Amino acid sequence: VQLQASGGGLVQAGGSLRLSCAASGRTFSNYGMGWFRQAPGKEREIVGRIKWNDGSTFYADSVKGRFTIWRDNAKNTVYLQMNSLKPEDTAVYYCAASPPGYSGYYYSEYDHWGQGTQVTVSS
């Protein structure tokens, strides 16, 4: 699976952005999809994920209620809608794919990564 993330940019606090991750290659619908982010000087952390089979989602506490993940298997694309953005959401955002059977909670479960897209939230 090859992944291409897009949609990042500069936004004021309280604003919104929608990230997209287009997949190509193997059967996209069989993969769990996750969004991660990495701020300068910090470790990469999970933002959320959507499972391949039932579409169930998980969100980090820091984004719960503000971010939404969904997928369109017909378009081989997963989305991350980010609302009520805060300066602490500033990071490079990555999409990633994990094979079936994994929870999708952990960085090590993902074996395909997109190139990252910068999100900057100004105060």
Write a structural description.
This protein has strands spanning 2-6, 9-12, 17-24, 32-38, 45-50, 57-59, 67-72, 77-82, 91-98, 112-113, 117-122. The chain is mostly beta strands and 123 residues long. The strands form 2 sheets. Strands 2, 4, 5, 6, 9, 10 and 11 form a 7-stranded mixed sheet that branches. The chain has a 4-stranded antiparallel sheet with strand order 1-3-8-7, with no helix packed on it.
Topology summary:
Layout: E1 2-6, E2 9-12, E3 17-24, E4 32-38, E5 45-50, E6 57-59, E7 67-72, E8 77-82, E9 91-98, E10 112-113, E11 117-122
Parallel strand pairs: 2-11
Antiparallel strand pairs: 1-3, 3-8, 4-5, 4-9, 5-6, 7-8, 9-10, 9-11
Structural features:
123 residues, mainly beta, 7-stranded mixed sheet, 4-stranded antiparallel sheet
State the end-to-end distance.
37 Å
Biggest sheet layout: 7 strands, mixed
β content, as a range? over 45%
Number-wise, the strands total 11
Low-confidence stretches: none
Quick rundown:
This protein has 123 residues and is mainly beta.
